[in-house]
Amino acid sequence: MLSTFKSTRKSLYVAGLLVTTLSLIAFTEVRQEQKRVQAVVVRFNQVDGRQFLTRRDVTGYLTNDGADPVIGKDYSEIDFGQLEARLRQHGLVQTCQISRDLTGNLLVQIEQPKPVARLMTTIDGQAGGQYVSEEGRFFPVSMNYTARVPILTGPYFRQNRSLANQRNRPLLDLIRRIQDDTFWRAQITELSVDEAGEVTMWPQMGNHRIEFGSPTDLEAKFKKLKLIYTDVLPAKGWDRYSRISVQYRNQIVCE
């Protein structure tokens, strides 16, 4: 009886020792895996429910198109700041943050710029363009998604390649005002800006142009324009006029 008890204790001891050894081995393997990049997990903010970038795009930026791979790399060899700087070099990345989780995944959080307009340009006979962000920065178009925003044209943009400075703040405020208002966002399709900075707008409905003038006194000018669109045009007809001007104070011109 005593012999059987001792044998059972010995078996339990051996089993416990085996479980402990296997747990230590598994723990060591997990710890080793946590020291190396297991996978790259990319997360995006979305623009109108879409995204300009894909996970493949970001991974390509991150690794210099595969020339500098990160999967399998020891975390002690990875400079998060350097990787973030590499991503920020690309125009479709506004901000980014790179971190890691407890399982060894490299986490990449991408914030894309939000467009408020699209600048259309022609270079060597080829049509091209860039978006304008909420902050007034120009950034490239994407093959993955085309945002529905007003078009910008005109000679003004030959010399003005950013709307983020103080000089162009009024023009950016005008564009943002249109984009933030559901009525005008649906109505205004194009803004043409001449060399002096005077704005002409083209609507979705009707054959008229809107002479807005300088991008100042926005509240008063949009109030006059709203009166035309809610009272005059529905009564007279959307194709009645070819020119509507609200650029002068206390004056509305319809021809």
Describe the model.
By secondary structure, the protein is of the alpha/beta class. It has helices at 2-34, 55-62, 80-88, 169-180, 182-187, 218-236, and strands spanning 39-44, 95-100, 105-111, 115-123, 126-133, 138-140, 151-153, 188-193, 199-203, 209-213, 243-245, 253-254. Helix content is 34%, strand content 25%. The strands form two sheets. Strands 6-5-4-7-8-9-10-11-12 form a nine-stranded mixed sheet. It is built from six helices and twelve strands. It has two domains: 39-111, Roll (Ubiquitin-like (UB roll)); 115-254, Cell division protein FtsQ/DivIB (Rossmann fold), CATH 3.40.50.11690.
Biggest sheet overview = 9 strands, mixed
CATH superfamily of the largest domain: Cell division protein FtsQ/DivIB
For this structure, what is the CATH class of the largest domain? Alpha Beta
Order the strands across the largest sheet as they lie in space.
6-5-4-7-8-9-10-11-12
CATH architecture descriptor name of the largest domain: 3-Layer(aba) Sandwich
List the helices and strands and how they pair.
Elements: H1 2-34, E1 39-44, H2 55-62, H3 80-88, E2 95-100, E3 105-111, E4 115-123, E5 126-133, E6 138-140, E7 151-153, H4 169-180, H5 182-187, E8 188-193, E9 199-203, E10 209-213, H6 218-236, E11 243-245, E12 253-254
